[in-house]
Write a structure and sequence with these properties.
Layout: H1 7-14, H2 19-26, H3 30-41, E1 43-46, H4 50-61, E2 70-74, H5 84-99, E3 106-110, H6 146-156, E4 165-168, H7 169-172, H8 185-188, H9 190-199, E5 206-210, E6 241-250, H10 252-259, E7 267-275, H11 279-283, E8 293-298, H12 303-312, E9 318-323, H13 330-335, H14 361-371, E10 376-381, H15 387-398, E11 404-406, E12 410-413, E13 422-425, H16 436-443, E14 447-451, E15 458-459, H17 462-469, E16 477-481, E17 483-485, E18 497-501, E19 504-505, H18 507-516, E20 522-527, H19 532-535, E21 541-551, E22 553-559, E23 567-573, E24 576-581, E25 598-600, H20 602-606, E26 615-624, E27 626-632, E28 639-645
Helix pairs in contact: 1-3, 2-3, 5-6, 6-9, 14-15
Pfam families: F-box-like (PF12937)
Domain F-box: 4-37
InterPro entries: F-box-like_dom_sf (IPR036047), F-box_dom (IPR001810), LRR_dom_sf (IPR032675)
Length: 647
């Protein structure tokens, strides 16, 4: 065994190992210990407050801080309720943390613990502070940011010389969608942040700047008004990723002025609330040919903004674009306080209350032409009335590029090296007028997903999906989600993969699927025996009758609702029947994943299937090679998963 491998070779090997294996790697010999420590501690996260003391102590009593190049801290930025003594304690900890991580390159700061459930209202925040049982002290001054105070002072004193990127989610969220945590950001974070990036001006690689304008100074971005001197003459020569956000109005000139600060940027993120029209400014726009990666979030897709984007960034080969217009409800805007309304979840809106955006044909064509030569693009527009027209124009303009399309709202895009075209839609848009372009696109379609995110299955009118399937001559993958299927078009399809997700399927359709999909080899089924359709059955047997199908792989996901967690299987292959049970009654203490799928006799099977405490699946097929059964009970956490290979 060679022990004198080059350091880079060690790192390549370690990149394929998990955390435990990396520790084992470092124990092989002294020469391997050093690169293993680099791999283990290179990226370090501190996610909860109680770990801070131990983390700082570990840094002070060892040299592990020398190996940390990326540090992720998740902390509540607010200092509300902090006493002066707690503030001083925290400052000392921050200073020690900085002192003992001299080789830090990247700092990521978050407001919440990523290990905690996102839906939990009392989000655990790092550095959130605690109240002593002593008589409380007066809270510190509002707006004080102890962490960035210490960071700024330390950088000015020569610490963190290798640091070149600070990603704070209070800032980066402004380059995504509106963040509830961004209130007060101008007073609390921006002055410190601007001072820090100014102190690292010659080496900073990622900055986020406010391009909002005000009526008093309509041509000056907010970031130029900071007490820290950032002006049109400032340069960040090493910045590769520039983020620009506006909370209110912005203009072409203000965006261009900020872009000029970062002449080497190749990635730009724009999050703009209101883009001001000015045809005179548009004519003066100078193309930025260096930017290749573009992320855009705009409230409204206007002709002036589209013209600006296409003219300003002609060499972009990656585009991620979100248009938020259409997420509003007119009644909310007219009658309610705007602070009570948010547009980050489709669940907040009734279909009838949505504002449906109509995109002019000229703009659709312009956008399709702009993305045609890109390596990758993804465009998401929440509610588009003429989404089928968008689908047509994009398919006609970009053919033969393979597109991923969702027509519940509009999502359309491509992925690098993707060899399949995909269409996903819900019943609300299945009854569409098929143009020649639409038919041509369907004829080239590889994957079709009928998807409806309802709690209870909804009837899918056969006429609607029959119209689409008639033109899917090359379809390989077909999926139905949360539907009641009682009919299926009598046509042969070249489908090889079929997914039935939480649907109520008429029993006769299984044999029809088998007959009309002669190339079917892979199928995945998720069903809930407690659904309305299953409860109406006269027995507890779920039967899959597909006698003409030879399965390479069949996956069954089964939501258990029985008193005893028992699932029986009857498998008939070309007339030969075998029986299986997933549960060993003599070994009731063994937990889910270790339970075995064992073969049983016909007599044992017949003696159990009439018991309503048990679940039964019967499969009839021509042949099957591999079966995966996954059962779980949401009420008591029971879970069982078994892979079975047939001879």
């Amino acid at each position: 065994m060679r022990v004198d491998l080059p350091f880079d070779v060690h790192l390549i090997i370690l990149s394929y190992l998990d955390k435990l294996d990396k520790h084992q790697y470092g124990l092989v010999c002294k020469q391997w210990y050093e690169p293993a420590k680099h791999a283990i501690f290179r990226v370090t996260s501190v996610t909860v407050e109680k770990k801070l003391d131990a983390f700082v102590d570990a840094l002070a009593t060892s040299n592990i801080g020398n190996y940390i190049s990326e540090l992720r801290l998740y902390m509540g930025h607010r200092t509300k309720g902090w006493s002066p003594s707690l503030m001083e304690k925290r400052k000392k900890q921050f200073a020690a943390l900085i002192k003992h991580t001299p080789n830090l390159n990247l700092l990521e700061v978050g407001t919440s613990n990523p290990d905690k459930d996102e839906n939990t209202s009392d989000r655990v925040a790092f550095f959130s502070g605690w109240r002593d049982k002593k008589e409380p002290e007066a809270p510190v001054e509002k707006g004080v940011n102890p962490f960035y105070q210490v960071v700024l002072e330390s950088i000015r004193n020569g610490h963190w010389k290798a640091l070149h990127s600070i990603d704070d989610d209070l800032l980066s969220e402004n380059c995504k969608e509106d963040s509830e945590d961004s209130e007060g950001i101008e007073d609390y974070l921006t002055p410190y942040y601007n001072a820090i990036i100014s102190a690292m001006q010659e080496r900073i690689s990622y900055v986020v700047l406010d391009v909002t304008t005000t009526p008093e100074l309509p041509l000056m971005p907010q970031c130029f008004k900071s007490s820290v001197k950032i002006s049109k003459d400032t340069q960040f020569p090493k910045v590769k990723h520039l983020g620009c956000y506006s909370s209110e109005k912005t203009t072409i000139q203000t965006i261009d002025d900020v872009l000029e600060l970062c002449p080497a940027a190749t990635q730009v993120s724009l999050s703009l609330n209101e883009f001001h029209k000015n045809q005179g400014e548009l004519k003066k726009v100078k193309p930025n040919t260096l930017v290749t990666n573009l992320r855009v979030i705009v409230f409204s897709l206007t002709e002036s903004f589209l013209n600006y984007m296409c003219r300003k960034f002609p060499n972009a080969n990656k585009l991620d674009m979100i248009v938020l217009e259409g997420c509003t409800m007119k009644s909310v805007i007219e009658d309610e306080d705007e602070d009570d309304f948010a547009f980050d979840s489709d669940d907040d809106f009734d279909v009838g209350s949505r504002y449906w955006l109509e995109i002019p044909t000229k703009m659709i064509q312009q956008l399709a032409t702009y993305v045609k030569s890109m390596e990758r693009f993804l465009i998401r527009i929440h509610y588009v009335a003429n989404r089928v027209e968008v689908f047509d124009i994009f398919n006609k303009t970009l053919s033969p590029i393979k597109l991923y399309t969702r027509l519940d709202g509009l999502t359309i895009g491509t992925e690098p090296k993707k060899t399949k075209s995909t269409l996903q839609l819900d019943p609300n848009v299945t009854n569409i007028k098929l143009t020649a372009t639409t038919k041509a696109a369907l004829n080239q379609l590889d994957e079709l997903f009928f998807d409806l995110n309802n709690i209870e299955p909804t009837v899918l009118p056969s006429a609607n999906y029959r119209q689409l399937l008639t033109h899917c001559k090359q379809l390989k993958e077909l999926s139905f989600s949360t539907f009641i299927l009682y009919d299926f078009p009598k046509q042969t399809l070249p489908v090889t993969h079929l997914t039935i997700h939480d649907c109520e399927v008429d029993r006769k359709l299984w044999k029809q699927f088998s007959r009309q999909m002669p190339q079917l080899t892979n199928m995945k089924i998720l069903f809930d025996p407690n659904s309305e359709g299953m409860k109406e059955r006269d027995d507890n047997v779920f039967k899959i009758d597909m006698p003409f199908t030879s399965f390479s792989r069949l996956e069954i996901e089964y939501m258990l609702v029985f008193t005893r967690h028992v699932l029986y299987l009857k498998v008939t292959r070309s007339g030969t029947t075998t029986y299986y049970c997933q549960y060993d009654e003599d070994d009731e203490e063994v937990e889910g994943p270790s339970k075995k799928l064992k073969e049983i006799t016909k007599k044992e099977y017949q003696g159990c299937i009439s018991n309503e405490e048990f679940g039964v699946v019967e499969l009839i097929c021509q042949d099957i090679k591999h079966l995966r059964v996954h059962c779980w009970d949401v009420n008591d956490g029971f879970e069982f998963e078994k892979e079975h290979q047939f001879n």
